[in-house]
């Protein structure tokens, strides 16, 4: 079953953080080699409050086989409580374009290798464009339910 058309993962690294550790943790989301699969790891610079430098890492996946591998890895790293939370919050996490938005705490993934949903800004941002045909909200919610219940 096709669950998504696009997956985009983003993380911000601030100048007081260990960039290598952030990048290593970011890459842990992908159970495959990005370079080998010709996936671009986009790195850009920004300036935040008080002129603090920010490095933004971003990867977008569009190939179905890589999306499925990514989702399997994601689901294997979520415990049942996190999956239940996503299911309970699915309605509010799905936008009008049928994109599901999840945020995972940076510290818990970097240091504990544990994915924990968060609402704070210090996180990994995940956007999943849900594959629903026809493109209707209720069908997309069913796809989300299938994805997080079946794994």
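Sequence proposed for the structure above (151 residues):
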């Amino acid at each position: 079953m096709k669950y998504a058309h696009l997956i985009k993962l983003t993380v911000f690294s601030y100048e007081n953080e260990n960039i290598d550790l952030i990048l290593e943790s970011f890459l842990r989301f992908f159970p495959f080699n990005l370079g080998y699969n010709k996936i671009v790891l986009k790195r850009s610079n920004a300036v935040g409050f008080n002129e603090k430098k920010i490095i933004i890492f971003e990867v977008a996946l569009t190939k179905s086989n890589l999306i499925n591998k990514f989702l399997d890895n994601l689901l294997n790293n979520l415990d049942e409580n996190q999956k239940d939370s996503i299911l309970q919050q699915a309605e509010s996490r799905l936008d009008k374009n049928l994109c599901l938005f999840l945020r995972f705490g940076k510290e818990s993934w970097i240091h504990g290798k544990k994915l924990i949903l968060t609402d704070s800004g210090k996180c990994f941002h995940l956007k999943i464009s849900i594959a629903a045909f026809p493109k209707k909200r209720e069908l997309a919610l069913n796809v989300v339910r299938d994805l997080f219940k079946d794994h």
